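Section 3.1: Structural characterization of target chains.
Under the original work plan, the team committed to producing a structural model for every single-chain target entering the pipeline before any wet-lab resources were allocated. The record below documents one such target. The sequence was received from the expression subgroup and is listed exactly as submitted; it comprises 252 residues.
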Amino acid sequence: MKTQNNYNKLIDKYINSEMTGDELELFENELKMNSRLKAEIELYKKIDHAIINDGLANFNKKINDIHSEHTSSKVDHKTNFIQKNIYYLVAAIIILIIAIASIIYFSNNKKLSNTEIYSMYFKPYETIKKRSAETITNDDIYKEALHNYDKSNYSRAIELFSQLFEQDDSYMAAYLYAGISLMETNNFPEAEKSFQTIINNNNIYYIQQAEWYLGLCYLKVNKTKKAKKQFNKIISRHGFYENNAKELLNKL
């Protein structure tokens, strides 16, 4: 069926029962698989029927009716095609929305590592003026240590705090800033000792800060059980860090 003329001749032969043998078999196989060919056959048959049974007077009307029916069929086919594609498009959009929602859900609910949680909650404690009730033997060293702490020169601050402790180990604020400086330089074992010194001293001014940072030390070095115990202790005391401790524990 290379050309339209050959195509039409084959249809004529088939309708007029002039096909035989292999040619008939091939054409009928093509007819089963080719919906367009099948429609053309039906159209030819209707035209023949109109000419033979209705006469020339009604021929034009029949032709118009057949043309309208044939065109409508094409329109219906096109409509079905569009509807089907709309269905697939909507289904694809729904699948995409579900996929995005799943990604967001699992991203928000994934278990964070201890280091990730630590990064969310750790920040250096801001320096405050020395309290009037507190005295310090070498105030100059302390002021220089705080200056380096404020400038994030933590290694130098640690050296100065160490010098201070050799002369006067009673000033608890210095242990707090020294401990945080040690955290900033990843020396968590020594930081724990600094905060524990404040806690053992039961210093009313800095004990809550020391307990909080001690919990963060445990968290960072993956002492998770100790961290949980420490944060639960903070919650039970209803202090400054109660809400932070609750939030943090929910992430562990």
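The chain has two domains: 4-92, 118-251.
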